[in-house]
Design goal:
The protein is mainly alpha-helical. The chain has a domain of 233 residues: MetI-like fold (Orthogonal Bundle), CATH 1.10.3720.10. 68% of the residues lie in helices and 7% in strands. The protein contains 17 helices and 5 strands. It has a 3-stranded antiparallel beta sheet. A two-stranded antiparallel sheet has the order 4-5. A hairpin with a 2-residue loop joins strand 2 and strand 3. It is globular and about 85 Å long. The termini are close together.
């Protein structure tokens, strides 16, 4: 088993390297001059050259790529004596760090990944991500909890009332939920519940988890702003969970031990919740774990439409401003979260089910 887990971890590292490489070269072949975008329309040639030298944009793409990998890697090698070197070790930039070794003029350090600075705000990309990632996590977690709890309940009821109007309605709703694009659902739900029924619901189209008080008393928690984006983001996983719960429950209810329980005169509720439910949840839990990773990666349109300031909102805003370090950092963060969650789930499968290792 240990050998299988090590192989999975090495495979994950290769995938991460591939994602980093793809994102770097994709954004570096996009037309546009980053230095000119930073300085604006009144930029002169000398200023542009100075900015390009400072950012390393005057170097060949392959050198920029090696430098970017070196900055992202927790274990990195830097030039320690020549301050004009592109790979010079800047203590302020790479802090905090642990010095591991010095070889001639080179220094090897252990550090957190360095994601560069924003072209527009000059803030570190890691700082921007740390400010917005919790909002995305809260939105994704709320959505998957809503989809899981409601989906399992509706799926069980649909299985118990097979071929009834409720069962057919749940199947119809599931088909609609899986087919509607997230951006269209966000626009329609925002328009209907915030504009058409705004006076009744009291919900806002845009808003964040914390809002600034009009009287200057600081920030206050505004949970109602979470309702519409969480509901929109949870529609698709809700549809999947309903279908899986229904089909899994029907399969379990057809087993011989369930027939035996019915023959003994046990009530339907006791058969469902005491014997059938636990055995029917395995595929549902599998889907929920995968969908949580997908929600973390698929919040871009929903966050932007509802003005929810998470990673998705920051990505769209940075694209509009051609702020590529922020875009690359956010996309990398989302990709890494998605890959790590799926890797953890795969390893758990290996531990729980020996057949997967084979």
């Amino acid at each position: 088993m240990l050998k299988s887990i090590i192989k999975k971890i090495l495979y994950t590292i290769l995938i991460l390297w591939g994602v980093v490489s793809l994102i770097f070269f994709l954004f570096n072949i996009i037309p546009g001059d980053s230095a000119r975008m930073m300085l604006g329309q009144r930029s002169d040639i000398n200023s542009i050259k100075a900015i390009k030298k400072d950012l390393g944009l005057d170097k060949p793409k392959i050198i920029q790529y090696i430098k970017y990998l070196n900055d992202l890697s927790p274990l990195s090698i830097h030039e320690n004596s020549n301050s004009d070197s592109y790979f010079y070790f800047d203590k302020e930039k790479y802090s905090p760090y642990i010095k591991l070794s010095t070889i001639s003029s080179k220094i090897i350090i252990l550090k957190k990944p360095y994601l560069r600075r924003s072209y527009q705000s000059k803030k570190e990309v890691s700082e921007i991500i740390s400010e917005t990632l919790p909002n995305t996590f809260i939105l994704a977690l709320t959505s998957i909890l809503f989809a899981s709890i409601l989906g399992i309940i509706l799926g069980i009821i649909a299985a118990i009332k097979k071929d009834s109007i409720f069962d057919k309605a749940s199947l119809f709703f599931s088909a609609i939920g899986m087919s509607v694009p997230s951006f269209f659902a966000a626009i329609f739900i925002g328009w209907f519940f915030a504009f058409v029924l705004g006076d009744i619901t009291g919900l806002n189209l845009t808003g964040n988890l914390y809002e600034i008080d009009d009287f200057g008393n600081g920030q206050y928690l505004q949970l109602k702003n979470l309702i519409l984006p969480a509901f929109t983001l949870g529609i698709r996983p809700l549809s999947i969970v309903i279908q899986l719960s229904r089909n899994s429950m029907l399969e379990v209810l057809s087993q011989n031990y369930i027939r035996t329980a019915k023959a003994k005169g046990l009530s339907t509720s006791r058969i469902v919740f005491r014997h059938a439910l636990r055995n029917s949840l395995n595929p549902v839990i599998t889907a929920i774990s995968g969908w949580f990773a997908s929600l973390m990666a698929g919040v871009v349109f929903v966050e932007y439409i509802f003005g929810w300031k998470g990673l998705g909102y920051i990505i769209v805003d940075a694209l509009n401003k051609y702020d590529f370090p922020v875009v690359i950092g956010c996309v990398l963060t989302i990709s890494i979260i998605f890959i790590i969650i799926n890797t953890i789930v795969d390893i758990l499968y290996m531990i729980l089910d020996p057949r997967i290792r084979i």
